[in-house]
Design a protein that fits this description.
Blueprint lengths: L9 E4 L5 E4 L18 H9 L7 H11 L16 H38 L8 H33 L19 H71 L13 H22 L10 H22 L1
Antiparallel strand pairs: 1-2
């Protein structure tokens, strides 16, 4: 007894309300090729006319049992005219053929992803579409890696259930010639593993490219922050200039003898200019105590003062 699942024809979408969608799908590149080994030209001519429907497993099995039953005659023995292996040749071959076509499908996807990764790596400007393109690339690679891992685990479970060694050098052969599927499953498992390694390698390259783009964006943000800090510094300098002037003006505004045009108006400049100098000097001295983490310490202040004094003495020595 061979249990065959029906093909997927309708998909129920879990929404409110629940709707159904008719699934119309076609085999990739026309489906898997015929695996029958033909020995005469008449069979080849008939194969050109008749081919498996490739619609579902049941239809394909019926096709092969009806049209190619003679390929199983060599497996019969006088002692056991009907052996169980006869019933498993075509199902295993169909499964192997589907997996081989699945490998071809992933080959096309990986070639497209590798081409997109190469095109991204050749760019020099990632300001507009660099980051979204790399994120989309990484998402596709992550999905391919997960799917390849699942298929590889499924094939490994098939090998274990059939008693076939995973290694390429050892195989348990139960049939002869092309009827055996042991080598096919070993080859499929090997290819899936190699493709998984290839996807991981390309994904590592995509991650490296993403880190480069992230570093460039962080550098751009840092430059923008520096520009904003310089603008704030300019406003601070302007404020340091006008604050003493405004304070002195308000101080001397309490008496009419210090207003512009009076005899004591010169006192305004005599007091405000030294105040401006003192404010700038105090601000500069206070800034000497800040370290790289923007924390003020007396140790840092003392070290900075000693460095400034050493520079002044060095400059005076050069002048002498």
């Amino acid at each position: 007894m061979i249990l065959c699942d029906p093909p997927v024809q309708k998909v129920n979408i879990l929404a409110h309300p629940i709707t159904s969608d008719i699934l119309l799908s076609e085999p990739f590149q026309g489906g898997y090729p015929d695996f029958i080994k033909y020995l005469d030209t008449n069979s080849i001519k008939s194969q050109m006319v008749e081919a498996p429907p490739r619609s579902c497993l049941l239809d394909d099995l019926c096709f092969y049992y009806e049209h190619h039953y003679q390929a199983l005659v060599s497996l019969e023995t006088p002692q056991l005219p009907i052996v169980p292996i006869i019933a498993t040749v075509f199902p295993l071959k169909i499964v192997c053929s589907h997996y081989l076509k699945l490998i071809d499908y992933f080959e096309v996807i990986l070639n497209r992803l590798a081409k997109a990764e190469w095109r991204l790596s050749r760019q020099s400007d990632y300001n507009h579409r660099g980051s979204p393109a790399v994120e989309e690339q990484w998402s596709s690679l992550q999905l391919s890696s997960r799917r390849l891992s699942e298929f590889s685990d499924d094939v490994e479970e098939i090998l274990r259930d059939m008693g076939i060694s995973v290694s390429d050098s050892v195989a348990r052969t139960t049939c002869v010639d092309w009827q055996s599927s042991d080598k096919d499953f070993q080859y499929i498992h090997h290819r899936l593993q190699k493709m998984k390694e290839r996807v991981d390698q390309v994904m590592g390259s995509a991650m490296g490219l993403s880190n480069i783009i992230g570093s460039r964006e962080a550098l751009s943000e840092a430059r923008r922050s520096i520009k904003e800090a310089k603008n704030a510094k300019t406003l601070t300098v302007v404020g340091l200039v006008f604050i003493p002037l405004a304070y002195t003006c308000s101080l001397f505004s309490m008496s009419d003898q210090f207003r512009p045009g009076s005899d004591l108006f010169w006192v305004y400049f005599a007091v405000s200019m030294p105040l401006v100098f003192l404010v700038f000097a105090g601000t500069f001295v206070i800034q000497l105590g800040y370290d790289e983490s923007a924390a003020w310490t007396f140790k840092r202040f003392k070290k900075a003062c000693m460095g400034k004094m050493f520079e002044l003495r060095k400059s005076e020595h050069k002048r002498v």
